[in-house]
Amino acid sequence: MTASDSGTVLAVALNPAIDMSSETETVHPTRKIRTSGERYDPGGGGINVARVAAELGGRPEALFLAGGATGALLEDLLDGAGIACHPVPIAGSTRISFTVHERATDLEYRFVPEGPTVTPAEIEPCLDVLRAGRHGYVAASGSMPRGAPADTLARMARIVAARGGRFVLDTSGEALRATLEHARVFLVKPSRGELEALVGHELDERGIREAATDLVRRGAAEFVAVSLGAEGALLADGRHVLRMPALHVPVRSAVGAGDSFVGAMVFALAEGKSPEDAFCLGMAAGAAAVLTPGTELCRRADVLRLHEELCSTCPRHRIGMEV
User: Fold this and answer.
1) Tens digit of each residue's pLDDT (9 = 90 or more) over 13-31
2) Which residues form the Carbohydrate kinase PfkB domain (predicted)?
3) Domain range for residue 45?
4) How many domains does the chain have?
5) How far is CA 322 from its chain centroid?
6) Residues 111-138, buried b or exposed e (16+ Cβ, 10 A)?
7) How far is the C-alpha of 132 from the C-alpha of 88, rounded, in Å?
8) Closest Cα partner for 170 from 138, 144, 141?
C-alpha cells in the first residue's frame, strides 16, 4: 500500500441505527409491556464493525450518514465509545432498532425499521471523505438506505483501491451484486443465504466452496469469507478453502455476531495478521458476540479466550480446489 496507512481502519455505515435493547417477562399483544434493563448502543453494520475493532484494541474511525435528534445521539454514543467520527448530515432521521428479550421463553424479538430515504447528493460527501483519506482498510457493512444509487459501494471500492487501500464488503441484495460485478474488493463476507441469493439457487457444502472460489477466480474479490451460522464458516482464496466448524457457546443474543466476525477480521488484518489468522479471530469474535445480552456485541476477554481455544483444539481444514 503506497498511498494508505495499512494499520488504519475506517468503518462505513450508510444506514446506521440507535440500537435499543431491553427485557420483559412476557411479550403479548394489545396491553402495555413493561420493560427493564434498557440499553442504548450505536448500531448498524459499519458502526458495529468499528465498535468491535475498538474493543479489541484498535483505533478505528466511523463514516456514517446521520440526521435528526437520533443522528446527534448516535454521534454522542460513538464519542462516548472513543471512536473518531466522520458524520455526514442528511435530512431524514437516523433509525432506531429495538430488541426485546422475553424472560419466560428466553426468546429474542428484534424490530428493525427501514431507515430514512436519502438522496445521491447526500451520499456524495462520503465519497469525498474516502478520496481524502489514507485508511489502509475501509469496511462497508450493513444495509443500504432507500434512495442510495445501486453503484454506491462499487464507487467506494474503486476509490479505495485507486489510492492503495483495501475494501472490505459486508452487505446483501442488489448492493452486494452490483459491487461484485463492477468493482474488485479485498474481502467480501456473505452469509450462506446471501451467497445463495447471489448465485440464484440453494447451495450444499461443495456448492458453497465452489461459489466462493468462483468469486475470487473471476476477480470480484481476493478473499471470500462465508458465515454458515451453527455450521461454522469458510475462507476461500481461489486456490484453497479454509473450513472451520463453529465454536459452541451458550447463546444469549444473536445480535451483531456477523458484524463482530467482520470487525475482528478487519482489526487483525490492519494489525498485519494473515487473512487466515484474521479469519480465526473473526470466528472467535462471532462466537463471543452471542455470549452477551442485547446489543452489547463481543467482549475482548471472551474473544481472546475463545481464540485460544480455537487455536489449541481445532485444526485448520484446507480443501484443495482445482485452479
Assistant:
1) 999 999 999 999 999 999 9
2) 18-298
3) 12-317
4) 1
5) 30
6) eeeebbebeeebbebbeebbeebebbbb
7) 15
8) 141
CB atoms within 10 A of CB 218: 12
pLDDT tens per residue across span 91-119: 999 999 999 999 999 999 999 999 999 99
3-state DSSP assignment of residue 292: coil
Judge whether 322 lies within some domain: no
Residues ≥6 apart with Cβ < 8 Å to 249: 287, 288, 290, 291, 306
What are the residues facing 243 on neighbouring strands? 234, 317
Beta bridge partners of 97: 19
Catalytic residues, by residue number, are 259
Position 5 in a domain: no
pLDDT of residue 168: 98
Are 225 and 189 in contact, with CB atoms under 8 Å apart? Answer: yes
CATH code for the domain of 218 = 3.40.1190.20
Secondary structure of 201-231 in HEC code, one letter for each residue: CCCCHHHHHHHHHHHHHCCCEEEEEEECHHH
The pLDDT value given to residue 314: 56
> Model's pTM, two decimal places?
0.92
For residue 7, pLDDT beyond 80: no
DSSP per-residue letters across 66-124: E-HHHHHHHHHHHHHTT-EEEEEE-SSPPEEEEEEEETTTTEEEEE-----B--HHHHH
CA 1 → CA 6, 95, 161, 270, distances in Å?
A: 7, 36, 9, 12
CA angle 109, 52, 209 (to 5 degrees): 80
- Report the chain's mean pLDDT, rounded to a whole number: 92
Per mean pLDDT, which range of 59-73, 272-286, 304-318 is the poorest? Answer: 304-318
